[in-house]
Structures are given as structure tokens and as C-alpha cells.
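User: quick one - fold this with iron/sulfur cluster bound?
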Amino acid sequence: MKEARFYKKLPQAFVQCTACNRFCRIANNSTGFCRVRKNVNGTLYSLVYNKTLTLTADPIEKKPLFHFMPGTYCNSISTYGCNFSCPFCQNHDISQDFTEKDIEAVQETTPEQIVENTIERGLEGIAYTYVEPTVFIEYAIDTMKLAKKEKLYNVWVSNGYMSEQAIGKLAKYLDAANIDLKGDAKFYKKLCGNVNVELVKKSIQLLYKKRVHVEVTNLIVPGYNDNADQIREVASFVASIDKGMVLHFSRFFPHYKMLDTPVTPLTTLRQAYSIAKQQGLHHVYLGNVPEAQNTYCPKCGSLVIEREGYTVMLLALDKRGRCKHCGYDLGIKVRESQRTSI
Ligand code: SF4
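Assistant: Sure. C-alpha cells for the protein plus iron/sulfur cluster:
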């Protein structure tokens, strides 16, 4: 156990965790909502420090991040725990279905070992992913600091519910983030465990202002967030920040506690794509379907990046992320010299 760095001590041996917007008040010998941050005699501990479950080489496109270091691979790390309780979670075996004993059984991997492992395997960066990285923020930040020294990139795949204080601390080590914007206020309240959508939106704005490369993902769940008004609300919010910000619409597959909900129809995804384009977004992609994968220059229409599965071809992109044909700045971050490929 490692003492947490995001919390306040309260009277009568209570503590308040300040890592995410739940701001859990935690009694002695209890854990917060995420079940991986525990109050022991008035001190808050992270139960998952040094406890990554994975060291998985993933294409950056899998996160998904399409405009950040295209074609590179990262080392994905993750612990147990999450601050949301979505009934459609793809990773519920590690986000929800675990005990303290399961955490204790995980072999320790230090931030130094993660960075060494990343370099040894020729990977370009580290992704903090699979569950919400805010719940292991101390472990993540210590790893991110070391990664930066080694010129590795850091990316978060996040639900965006970290506190403003947490963003303030992590943003300087964070290169990119894919943030889920799952739906409207009703969707978040009903399906994610009484979450305030406005605070998710605020995180997206804040990360963008702090110059973190941000892409947004909206998983379309039939019957819950698939009507045109809900989709328009997501797209217009993204467009209000920057019309060049990437928006991914992802196809839902029945999972976990939502086995009776159907797969998102292709027609719904295509409609979402059109709505987002009508809102003026330049870059809209579809996920979990083999279409709307390529990047086109919004100015001259050239095919800039072609994607087929995780095979990525940079056809007309210069080293500064501009269209080779017309010079338009697509805002795509490109690594100048790649490490050895895996
Ligand atoms: S990180 Fe966990 S303990 Fe802390 S406020 Fe969020 S849910 Fe609560």
C-alpha cells in the first residue's frame, strides 16, 4: 500500500479523496466508490500502486487515438478498480468484479520496471487504460514522470471524471487522452452511477486548454443514447471546443449486464456520422466497424492517412502533421523518428 497524494484528512479519522469528482468521504477501514483507495486510521492509501495487471503492446489506434502518433505502439498498463459502474463495461472483470485479495495477489511492477519494459520492447509510449486511470493516479503520475525523461509518450483512456486538481497535476506529463463522452445527463445518471455529465465536459475543455491532445469517443447504446438529439448534443459540444477535434462513434455489442440490448445498427452509426459532420466537425470516425476509418484533408480533400484494421499508411502527411498536398495543419502529432518497430 502506498499513501495517496490526492486526499484531505477530516475529523474522526475520516478522509476525503480528491482524485475524482466523486470526492468520496471515507470512514476508517473503508474504501471509496472505486474500491482501490482505502482509509486506514485516517490515512488514505492506494491499494493498487505497483499493481499493474497488464503490460500489453497495443497500436495507438486501438485506444482509439487517430491523430496522435499514428502507426505507433504503446505499452498498456491497468490496475483493478473504476469510479464508474457502467453495466456495459467491456472490462468488468477488472473494473468491477474483484476483491482486495485479488489485488494482493498481483505481482508488483514498479514505474521504473514499466518504463524499462516499454523501452526494451521498442514501444513508443505508455497508455493508462482498460479501467479509469484516475483510480491509480499516483502510480500513473510516477510512471509518467519517468516516461517523459525517456522521451516516451503518455496517453490516458479515460471517462474524464478526474478532479480539476488531478488534471492540474497530471496534464504536464500527459501528451494525449481519449475521453468518453457517453451521452446526456440522463444517461450518465442512470447508467454510470449518478455521474454529472457537466463535469466530464469540463475535463475535456480543461485538458484541451492545457494543450493535451484530446479525442472524444461516444459509444452508441441502442435505446439509451442513440436518438438524433442526443447525438447532436455530443457532436455540438465537441465542435464548440474545436471543429478539428476528433470524434469517434463506437458500435455497442451486448456485454456484462446488458446482454439483452442489441448491437448498434450500422444505419445509426452512419446517421451519427452525418449529424457530426453537419455540426461542422472535420474528423469523425466509426469504431468497431470497418468504415469511416480514413483521414482526409478538410481543405483539399486528399486522403492523408489510410487505415485498414490496425495497418496505418501515412500517405500525405508531413513531419509537422500537415497535408503534403496543400499544407493544411491537421493537428496530427507525428513522431519524428520512431524507435525500432515491434
Ligand atoms: S478515485 Fe475512488 S475513492 Fe477517490 S473520489 Fe474517486 S471513486 Fe472515490
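One thing worth noting: The longest strand covers residues 213-220.
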